[in-house]
Design brief:
By secondary structure, the chain is an alpha/beta fold. Strands 12-11-10-13-14-15-16-17 form an eight-stranded mixed β-sheet, with helices on both faces. Strand 1 and strand 2 form a beta hairpin. Helix 19 crosses helix 24 and helix 24 crosses helix 27. It binds (S)-3-Hydroxyhexanoyl-CoA (3H9).
Length: 697
C-alpha cells in the first residue's frame, strides 16, 4: 500500500485518505495510491460507501506541476478518475482548503461532494497555460451549465463553497472545521439513505438547457480582448463546447487532444516557470527560514502624493492602521480625498462595499507632525527623488521613532546606504520600492542596504505577503533591478527613434511581445519630465548624455498624459495614445539639427535592441549580486512592468532564445554602436562558453 494514500474502514464507511504535503498534489505516488485504495474499498465487503478525504491544509490542489514536461507515468489522472466514477459503491469527496485543477476533477469523478464552508474550488489550469485535462471541461458544465463553467475555466478564478453549492458543484456545505468528521457524517447519510451512485457524466439537463446557445461565440469574442496573445483560454472554450456537441467519451478524447496542444505550447513552460519563480522569490537566498520577524501592526507614511496614498491603501486594505504625514494641510486633504475617491470607485464597481470604504478610511489618519510616528512599527518615506530631502527626513525619523521601528524608503533609484547614513540605526533602514499605481501593481522590490539586518529583511518580505504583494529582495545600486534595466531599454528606444524608427513602431514591437504598453506610452504615463530631470541631473554632474528629441518634448511642456500631450496626444477622458504629427515634426527637426539621416529600422532590430540591452544588464545585475537569481529578475519584470508571464520573464525568455544568439548580437551592437550598455556581461560570456543558461545558475 502506498504511504501517501491509505485505506481504513470506519463502520460502514471505507475511508481513502491522501496525505502528501504540502498540497496533496496528484503526483505519481498519489495517483497509483488512489487506484490501490479504491480497489481495497471495492473488495471490502463491509464498506457500503467510500469516502475520499485529505490530510493537512487542503484537499488535492491539482496535478503535480513539477511532473509537467517529464514522461507521464501510468496511471494517468483521467483513468484514475474514471475508475472512481465507475465504482459501483458510492464515493463521497470531502473538501477542505482548496480543491483545484485535477483535485476538483477528482472530486467531480466522485458521486457526492461535501465541503467545509471555508473551502474553495476552481480549475486554475488556464493560469499555467493549460486546460483542465482530466474531465473538468466535460463534467463541470454538466453540473454548472455552460456560462459558469466557461467563466471558471477561462478565468481560473476560485469560487467559495456556498457559491459552489448554489451552482450544483458540491452537494452539501458544512460550517464545521473537522473535515474527516464532516465527510464521515455525510457518507453515513448516503449509506443510511441508500443513495445510488450518481455519475456526473450521465447528467444531461444542463447540457440540454444550453445546447445551441450563443454563449461560446460570446465568450470567444470577449477573450479576444481579455486574453490577447494567450493560447490556452481559447482552447478551454473549444473543450467546453465539446461537452455540448459530443457524447461524453468523445468529449473526453477532444479534451485530451486540446490539453496536449496546450502542454506542448511554449506558453505553458513560461507560465509554469512564473508560478514557481514567484514562490521561490519569497525565499531570500542566505536568509534562514527561522529569522525572527518583527510585528508590524501600525504604519507611518511620509507623503500623501500618488505613491504615498497608494501605499497607504495597501495597509488599510488588510486592516493595518496608517498615519500619513504631509507638510501642508492642503496637500494632506488632497491626498486623503484621492484615497477616498479610489475606494468609492471600487465600491461603485462592486469590488468592495460602502461599509468597507468607511472601515478602510477610518484606518487612515492624516497628520502634519512626525511626532505621530512615535509608536509606529514601520515608516515608509514616499517623497520625491531628492537625496538631501530624504536624508533630512531619515534624520528626523531616527530622532522620533521608537527603537526597533523599521525605516523604509520608497525610492526608485537612490542609494539606500546613503539614506541610512543619516540615521544611527542603518540596520533598521531598508528600501521598499512600490510600483505605480501602488495599490494595484503586485510587485514590492525590497532593497537591502549593506547594513540592513536579517530581521528587517525577513520582516519586509513578510509585510509584502501580508499586503498581498509579491516581494523580491534585491541589492542596492542605481535603479535596483527593475528601473536599472528599464533605463537601459528607455535609452535604446530613444536612440532607435533618433536613428529613424517612429515611437509607435517601437511601442508596437513591445506590445506585440506581450507588454501591456510600449516604452513611450509608458513614458507618457510616468511623465516625460521624470526622465528629462534624470538626464539633466546627469548632464549637470558632467556625464556625457546624448541629446534627445524627448528633451524637446519636455521643454515644450509636453509632459505626457497629465498635459494631454507627450510622445502621443490624448483626448479628454481617454488614456488611449494617439500618434501626433507635431511630434513627428519635432523628431524630424531634431534629426536635422543633429545631422542624422534617418534609416529604415526593422522590427527585429527594435526587438533585439530593446530586449537584449535588458538581458545584458540583467546578467550584469546577477554578476554583481544585485539580484540573487535570474528568477528574481523575472518576477520583478512580470509583476512590476507587466512582462508577459507566459514568456516566463526576460531572463527565462533569453534562455529560450539561446544565450549564444543573444551574446553574438550584443557583441555586434557593441562593435557597431558602442556604449557601456552594450559591453558584453562577463557572466553572459561565461554561461555561453560553458553551454549553460540563466536557469542553470
Ligand atoms: C492540473 O491540475 C492539470 C489537470 O487538469 C490535468 C492533469 C492531466 N504541484 O502557493 P503556496 C507547492 S494543473 C506541485 O506557497 P498557498 C508550491 O510550489 C494544476 N506543487 O501556498 C509550494 O511549494 P514550496 C492545477 C505545488 O497556501 C507549496 O506547494 N492546480 C502545487 O499560498 C505551497 O504553495 C493549480 O494550479 C502543485 N499543483 O497556496 C494550483 N501547488 O513550499 C496551484 C502548490 O516548495 N497552486 N505547490 O515553495 C496554488 O494555487 C496554491 O499553491 C494553493 C496554496 C492555493 C494550492
Amino acid at each position: 500500500m502506498s504511504e501517501v494514500v491509505t485505506y481504513n474502514r470506519e463502520g460502514a464507511i471505507g475511508v481513502i485518505t491522501v496525505n502528501y504535503p504540502p498540497v496533496n498534489a496528484l503526483g505519481h505516488a498519489v495517483r497509483s495510491g488512489l487506484v490501490a485504495a479504491l480497489e481495497q474499498g471495492q473488495k471490502d465487503a463491509d464498506a457500503k460507501v467510500l469516502l475520499l478525504v485529505c490530510e493537512g491544509r487542503t484537499f488535492i490542489a491539482g496535478a503535480d506541476i513539477r511532473e509537467f514536461g517529464k514522461p507521464m507515468q501510468e496511471p494517468s489522472l483521467p483513468s484514475v478518475i474514471n475508475q472512481y466514477e465507475n465504482s459501483d459503491k458510492p464515493v463521497v469527496a470531502a473538501i477542505h482548503g482548496t480543491a483545484l485543477g485535477g483535485g476538483l476533477e477528482t472530486a467531480l469523478g466522485c458521486h457526492y461532494r461535501v465541503a467545509l464552508s471555508s473551502a474553495k474550488v476552481g480549475l486554475p489550469e488556464v493560469k499555467l497555460g493549460l486546460l483542465p485535462g482530466a474531465g473538468g471541461t466535460q463534467r463541470l458544465p454538466r453540473l454548472a451549465g455552460a456560462r459558469k463553467a466557461l467563466e471558471m475555466i477561462t478565468s481560473g478564478e476560485f469560487v467559495g463553497a456556498k457559491e459552489a453549492l448554489a451552482l450544483g458543484i458540491v452537494d452539501a456545505v458544512d460550517d464545521g472545521s473537522d473535515i474527516r468528521a464532516v465527510g464521515l457524517a455525510y457518507a453515513r447519510k448516503v449509506a443510511e439513505e441508500g443513495r445510488p451512485v450518481r455519475r456526473v457524466r450521465d447528467l444531461t439537463d444542463k447540457l440540454e438547457a444550453d445546447r445551441g446557445s450563443d454563449v461560446f461565440v460570446q465568450f470567444r469574442a470577449g477573450l479576444e480582448k481579455k486574453a490577447r496573445g494567450l493560447f490556452s483560454p481559447f482552447k478551454c472554450v473549444d473543450a467546453v463546447e465539446a461537452a455540448f456537441s459530443l457524447p461524453f467519451e468523445e468529449g473526453m478524447k477532444r479534451e485530451r487532444e486540446l490539453f496536449m496542444e496546450c502542454m506542448e505550447s511554449p506558453q505553458r513552460g513560461g507560465l509554469v516557470h512564473s508560478f514557481f519563480a514567484e514562490r521561490e522569490a519569497s525565499k531570500v537566498k542566505g536568509l534562514s527560514k527561522d529569522t525572527p520577524v518583527r510585528d508590524v501592526n501600525s504604519v507611518g507614511i511620509i507623503g500623501a502624493g500618488t505613491m504615498g496614498g497608494g501605499i497607504a491603501m495597501n495597509f488599510a486594505n488588510v486592516g493595518i492602521p496608517v498615519t500619513i504625514v504631509e507638510v501642508k494641510q492642503e496637500a494632506l486633504d488632497k491626498g486623503l480625498g484621492i484615497i477616498r475617491k479610489n475606494y468609492e470607485n471600487s465600491a461603485k464597481k462592486g469590488r468592495i462595499s460602502q461599509q468597507q470604504v468607511e472601515e478602510r478610511m477610518a484606518l487612515i489618519t492624516g497628520s502634519l507632525t512626525y511626532d505621530d510616528f512615535r509608536d509606529v512599527d514601520l515608516v515608509i518615506e514616499a517623497v520625491f527623488e531628492n537625496m538631501a530631502i530624504k536624508k533630512e527626513i531619515f534624520g528626523k525619523l531616527d530622532a522620533v521613532c521608537k527603537p526597533g521601528a523599521i525605516l523604509a524608503s520608497n525610492t526608485s533609484t537612490l542609494d539606500i546606504d546613503e539614506i541610512a547614513s543619516a540615521t544611527k540605526r542603518p540596520e533598521d533602514v531598508v528600501g521598499m520600492h512600490f510600483f505605480s499605481p501602488a495599490n494595484v501593481m503586485k510587485l514590492l522590490e525590497n532593497v537591502r542596504g549593506s547594513k540592513t539586518s536579517d530581521e528587517v529583511k525577513a520582516t519586509v518580505m513578510a509585510v509584502a505577503k501580508r499586503i498581498k504583494k509579491v516581494g523580491v529582495m534585491v541589492g542596492n545600486c542605481h535603479g535596483f533591478v527593475g528601473n536599472r534595466m528599464l533605463h537601459k531599454r528607455g535609452g535604446e528606444a530613444m536612440s532607435l527613434v533618433n536613428e529613424g524608427a517612429t515611437p509607435q513602431q517601437v511601442d508596437k514591437v513591445l506590445t506585440d511581445l506581450g507588454y501591456p504598453m510600449g516604452q513611450f506610452a509608458m513614458s507618457d504615463l510616468a511623465g516625460i519630465d521624470v526622465g528629462y530631470r534624470i538626464r539633466e541631473e546627469r548632464r549637470n554632474a558632467g556625464e556625457a548624455v546624448e541629446p534627445s528629441w524627448m528633451d524637446k518634448l519636455a521643454e515644450q511642456n509636453r509632459l505626457g498624459q497629465k498635459t494631454m500631450a507627450g510622445v502621443y496626444r490624448y483626448e479628454e477622458g481617454s488614456r488611449a495614445p494617439i500618434p501626433d504629427p507635431e511630434v513627428d515634426q519635432i523628431i524630424a527637426d531634431f534629426r536635422k539639427e543633429q545631422g542624422i539621416t534617418p534609416r529604415e529600422i526593422t522590427d527585429q532590430e527594435i526587438l533585439e535592441r530593446c530586449m537584449y540591452v535588458m538581458i545584458n544588464e540583467g546578467a550584469k545585475i546577477l554578476e554583481e549580486g544585485i539580484a540573487d537569481r535570474a528568477l528574481d529578475i523575472d518576477v520583478v519584470w512580470i509583476y512590476g512592468y507587466g512582462f508577459p508571464a507566459y514568456r516566463g520573464g526576460p531572463m527565462f525568455w533569453a534562455d529560450q532564445i539561446g544565450l549564444e544568439n543573444i551574446l553574438g548580437t550584443v557583441e555586434q551592437f557593441y562593435d557597431d554602436l558602442g556604449g557601456e550598455q552594450w559591453k558584453p556581461s562577463a557572466l553572459l560570456q561565461k554561461l555561453v562558453s560553458e553551454g549553460r543558461t540563466f536557469g542553470d545558475l
